[in-house]
Specification:
By secondary structure, the chain is of the alpha/beta class. The strands form three sheets. A five-stranded parallel sheet has the order 2-1-3-4-5, with helices on both faces. The protein has a four-stranded antiparallel sheet with strand order 6-7-8-9, covered by helices on one side. The protein is elongated, with a radius of gyration of 21 Å. It starts with a strand and ends with a strand.
Length: 229
Amino acid sequence: MTNRALVVDDDETIRKVLAKVLASNGLEATLAEDGETALTLISGNPDVFQIILLDVMLGANDGFSVLKAIRSQGILTPVIIISARNEDYNTLYGLGIGADDYIAKPFNPIVLGAKIQALIRRANLAQKEPNPIISLGPFMLNTKTLHFFKHDQELFLSGKELSLMQLFMSHPKQVFSKEALYQQVWGNTVVDDNTIMVYINRLRAKIEDNAKEPKYLVTVWGVGYVFSV
């Protein structure tokens, strides 16, 4: 089966150059000139591309926005940011929001080809591992990168909050007593009721539409808590 790549760049000349680089590495290129087109192609066919080459400067819906949208949907296709912006900040930002590599223009076709092949090999190996994405209602948790989203917007949780969310999302509609939560998240059978309440309230403040009237993380009076969507 021929590997396929998506090239997203608003410069037609660059798109053609990248298509040639891909062809020389045995990949078939699909070309997109803006972020909206790219998201349509990716969202409709999340598994059709083995790698995405993404420019940053794409107008209103720039490459970073496209990358965030891709990752918030749980799509783990390798992404290489290719941009004339080669400042350290942009490199670190791109890698921080989910890019797998970052290469500056003008680029060396041989180096780019090697990076593409390496990322595809790594992705093929990763497919043999359990899916790290848990999606439930408006929520998505990547248990590998520990990124958590609600309605495609990233929410920043502490380590213990992430552990609680992973437990709840892995067992929707299961009622957890305070004892069970403390044992599974804190590893302790001695229950600190105040600690449980503090973390439940912190989570509600972040994930609920109205923390005072929770609809996702609900109290089952006299028993414990349940996560339901």
